[in-house]
Amino acid sequence: MERLEKFEDWARACMHVRCGFCRENCPAYSQLQLDTYAAKGKMTILYHLLKGKLELDEAVAERVFACTSCGLCDVACGYNQSEAIHEMKTVLYDQGVAIPEGYMKVSTKTRESGNPYSVDANEGARFLQSLPESELSTADYTLFLGCTQIYRESNEIGSLLKILRAAGVSFRIPTEQICCGSPAYRVGDEAQAREQARRVTNLFERMESDNILVSCAGCYRMLIHDYEILLNDDAKFKITHSMEFLQELVQDDKLKIRPLNAIITYHDPCHLGRHSGVYEAPRQILSSILGVKLVEMEWNRKFAKCCGAGGGFRSGRGEDAIAIAANRVREAEATGASILVTACPFCLRNLRDGAQSVNSQMKIESVESLLAELV
Length: 375
Ligand code: SF4
Ligand code: SF4
Known about the structure:
The chain is 51% helix and 9% strand. It is an alpha/beta fold.
């Protein structure tokens, strides 16, 4: 409980102000419609935990874990309430409180199989080893691929590789598949997340890689922010997200891109946008395509609504996660766009499922898959 004490002032302020600004766009609140699911409710729970009026139990865990870690409440509130909520998850996990099964599975699967999808890691390694760039001993960049890309969205990898090859980028791919630790971290399993962080860092050290390319928003946030906290060490590697890297390739005219007549809107992944500040690079890539008209959804950039998948929410509350994604798809439809583009394989999956659930005609693509079709 000690690690929650630093949030007492924030919780007290929230209790007294009771403004509720954090509610409007909170995906958990918008779907579950009870104050206790918004940051406001979670901070009230935190306050009462600290005052001994509530206990760390199953009922508290049910409320606290219903959070996508999107951080939209931070923007509305001014306090980093999502940090306090993350700490509550970690304390609940550490204390061995019964956590809703779906969230717990994310951690258990990572512990048992090395990835949150429970696929034999040898399968991932075999896939990576089948890529020609995995055999290279040196290259300018090392491409780190995440579990969702490898086990669920491998077409996305094909798209990215096609673009990098077309631009003549010198890159190589590790032959070992190691989860970055983000899924375990977001459900409070700090020990396993730290273990994954050590494994990934060791991998980069063994490969003598300084320049790392990442194209999953979750991996990116983990590598640039959370590893410093988990390993209590300064960043040792230069980590670049594929959006910024591809934007430079486009700007330097390294890609010959065919025109596309389409109205497109862009969904900011929480981990890439709000948490890491990468807003403009994907928009610049899309705007550079001749014939593309880029239009914005009402809630964009740091105010972008969450797709509903993060923080273990898709695993813990699958139907709710897809319903949240469907709302985001509806928001995209209102722009008049026919293609909704994003820059995270996990958002891509959830938005696609959301679109399907409401029979939307909206085409869901990643920046990479869209670009790969045009180079
Ligand atoms: S916006 Fe902040 S202070 Fe206001 S209710 Fe929400 S968490 Fe509390
Ligand atoms: S981080 Fe997102 S889901 Fe969690 S309480 Fe804040 S706004 Fe709601």
